[in-house]
Amino acid sequence: MTNGQQYTAPPPGGFPRPECVESPWRNTTDRNRADWGAQAGPKGWVRVYRAKYTANARDVVSKLLFVIPRLVEAPGVVISPPTSREDLDERLAAPWNFLISSISEEALTRLTDQCTWSTPTISFMVFPFDMPLPRYVMTLQNFSLADDIESNKYIARIIKAKLKSIKEASDFITKHSAADDTKAAENTIESIDVKSLEITITGGQTDLIWNIYCTPPKSLDFFHFLEWCTAARGLVFETDRFGTGVARMGKEQLFCVGCKSYDHPTGLCPLPRIVGWFGPSVQSVSSEDKTLQQADERNERKAPKSGRGAGKSQNGYRGGGKGGNRNTRGGRRH
């Protein structure tokens, strides 16, 4: 940019949209909801990459106020931090979303259209205040199918047939969508899309799982979409030759602490892999996700039966490669 501000150029097709299946209001106070809901004029949500709640958000607000007016025409923009309703027993717990206001509609649209902004100062995402529903429904496992397009299409047909056979699945969408959208349920089920994903599991082996997406009606609110997804996740999807698919739930649910998506683990977040990314690298984010318990379990599996031939130094570390110089990568704009 002419003012010298650097940012990561969008890849072909744009940045991948985070599939965060959580309300932007999650764990905010009633005061936040009342005040921000009544805020007049253009407004939206800002979420920092790898966000976590902190009572003192001065540093984050300062960085956003420095960067955003250098990306778009936004003199006098206001960034308001959320207040936590309660302490959640979660890593990098919500609330994550800041309110952006006192900004023109044109500038806000520019920010939300690109959505993801990565700069040397801070990496963040901007969403419309009326945040669109996610497309993610669930992740299925246990099919003995290949990792290819035809297998994905086959699973999509199985899911569509199952949902169509359950009257309540269609009735629920029809009941909670706009009255004039007579094909809301039909269109939602027909929009089912499947994408396979290879993940690493315990012991260093890999497994193939399948993310399920749909395009819900625009008139369906978040609460009812979540209810519909919850019901769908409780189903089993039988095939004649390739096993029975079930949803990954509880501790098996995928979650990325970086972009807050539910369709991939942190180590497979696509954003740090984009050329010119200024934010945390895949390696640093993945390493920060590891726990001491996981390290203990890994070392126990690798421990030699005798004191000989351990194959690593006494302090338990192996040699590491040199880190790359991210300032030499392309794909950035000035």
Count of alpha and pi helical runs:
9
Q: How many domains is the backbone divided into?
A: 2
Low-confidence sequence ranges: 290-299, 301-330
Strand segment count: 12
Order of helices and strands: EHEHEEHEEEHHHEEHEEHHE
What assembly state would you assign to the polypeptide chains in this entry?
A: single chain
Proportion of β residues?
A: 15-25%
**Rg from alpha-carbon coordinates:** 22 Å
In order across it, which strands form the biggest sheet? 3-4-2-6-5
Roughly how much helix do the residues carry, as a percent range? 25-40%
Q: Main β-sheet: number of strands, strand sense, barrel status?
A: 5 strands, antiparallel
Distance from first to last alpha carbon: 4 Å
Mean pLDDT: 88
Biased composition (Basic and acidic residues): 287-303
Region (Disordered): 1-37, 286-334
Write a structural description.
Residues 287-303 have a biased composition (Basic and acidic residues). Residues 1-37, 286-334 are annotated as: Disordered. This protein is α+β, with helices and mostly antiparallel strands and 334 residues long. The chain has two domains: 7-128, no CATH class; 136-248. The chain contains nine helices and twelve strands. The strands form three sheets. The chain has a five-stranded antiparallel β-sheet with strand order 3-4-2-6-5. Strands 8-9-7-11-10 form a five-stranded antiparallel β-sheet. Strands 1-12 form a two-stranded antiparallel sheet. Helix 5 crosses helix 6. It is globular. It starts with 6 loop residues before the first strand and ends with a strand. Residues 290-299 and 301-330 have low confidence and may be disordered.
